[in-house]
Design brief:
Elements (H helix, E strand, L loop, with lengths): L1 H4 L1 E7 L3 E6 L3 E7 L2 E4 L5 E4 H5 L9 E4 L2 E2 L2 E2 L2 H16 L7 E7 L5 H13 L2 E8 H8 L10 E6 L4 E7 L2 E8 L3 H16 L1 E2 L2 H11 L16 E8 L5 E7 H24 L3 H10 L1 E4 L8 H9 L3 E3 L6 H9 L3 H13 L1
Parallel strand pairs: 1-9, 9-10, 11-17, 17-18
Antiparallel strand pairs: 1-2, 2-3, 4-5, 4-6, 7-8, 11-12, 12-13, 14-15, 15-16
Helix pairs in contact: 3-4, 5-11, 6-7, 6-8
Length: 346
């Protein structure tokens, strides 16, 4: 009877995107973490994709907000309003009573920030709310053997944070959380386009460049020649102020992303350096798994292999790994409590 009324939900409350997983249904919400409201009275206009389309285009009467910054809640009220709308869509007409929820958060957040996330979800009807660190959730979602004594390593590169962790026996042994991820990649592209082409572009164009032609290393063909991929970027000329279009190559994106990617690689190295020797030996055998939207950047796995000597692979469900992990963890409450508790007890 209890299970009939109980609904299990996993939430990846990300800086760039929010994903919601429902047991028995899978991922039912995958929307940008953006909300648009009326400036005067705060009345909700749109969330998700529709709100993101308004970024940089809205008149003064409309306030468009990204309520999460660097992986944490920067605007509590807007986050609650956005999440209320997403959860309402996910549950449709079903009641929200006895809702069991696991929320993924970056491994570097403070206890105060965790409580803020928990409070938002409880306001939405969450009866039992568990806050799980994102690298653990991503590892579960990527089907890594997190309960085994042999260690595994994951780097979850999201929009606001890159969370790198070594996991063994159901707990995070060592981790590094960098507030340096997809958003910083976009900023680097914006700066590069202005510096090289005198072209002013927005975050939407920068993200499109990152997704379509972004790479850590340019591809080469069998003859050793560079494979050229291009995309037109439209913006405003920084000198004349007139509209301008530039053809951007993958080589441009490699140069633009070099510095922010280097910071992530240094974070991976630092995590390895802090690992006990026996676990470091396990990672040599098992390698590193990449997840998150940033993990999908072309040839990032190859560059990390070159720089660390480890075998690196991208999770099959990289973008959805955290949401899947939060949902899957609800299948075994005893393990879930251990996953949540063990890092806190360290």
């Amino acid at each position: 009877m209890f299970s009939f009324f109980t609904k299990d939900m996993g939430i990846d409350l990300g800086t760039a995107n929010t994903l919601i997983y429902l047991t028995g249904k899978g991922i039912v919400i995958n929307e940008p973490s953006v909300i648009a409201v009326e400036s005067g009275n705060g009345k909700l206009i749109a969330t998700g994709v529709r709100a993101k389309e308004m970024v940089g285009k809205a008149p003064e009467s409309i306030k468009v907000v990204r309520p999460l910054q660097d992986g944490v809640i920067s605007d509590f009220d807007m986050t609650a309003e956005m999440l209320r709308d997403f959860i309402g869509k996910a549950l449709a007409d079903r009641a929200r009573s006895k809702l069991r929820v696991v929320v993924g958060v970056p491994s570097g957040v403070t206890e105060v920030e965790k409580r803020a996330v928990e409070e938002v979800v409880r306001q939405m009807g969450g009866k039992d709310v568990f806050v799980m660190e994102e690298p653990m959730a991503a590892a579960i979602g990527a089907d890594l053997a997190v309960d085994d004594p042999m260690g595994c390593m994951i780097a979850d590169i999201g929009g606001g944070t890159s969370d790198i962790a070594i996991i063994a026996l159901g707990g995070i042994v060592t981790s590094t959380s960098l507030r340096h991820a997809g958003d910083k990649f976009d900023e680097a592209i914006i700066q590069y386009m202005r510096r090289k082409y005198n072209l002013l572009i927005g975050y939407k164009t920068a993200e499109e460049l990152k997704v379509n032609v972004g790479c850590a290393i340019v591809d080469v063909n069998e003859e050793g020649f560079e494979v050229v991929r291009t995309m037109d970027a439209r913006g405003r000329d920084a000198v004349t102020g007139l509209p301008k279009t530039v053809s951007v190559r993958s080589r441009d994106m490699q140069d633009a992303l070099e510095e922010p990617i280097e910071i992530v690689i240094e974070g991976i190295k630092a995590t390895l350096e802090n690992a006990p020797p026996e676990l470091a030996a396990d990672i040599v055998t098992n390698g590193l798994v990449l997840s998150g939207g940033g993990g999908l950047i072309s040839n990032l796995d190859k560059l990390i292999e070159m720089r660390t000597g480890m075998h690196v692979r991208v999770a099959e469900n990289a973008f959805e790994a955290v949401a899947l992990g939060t949902g899957k963890s609800l299948a075994n409450m005893e393990k879930l409590k251990r996953y949540v508790r063990m890092r806190k007890d360290r």
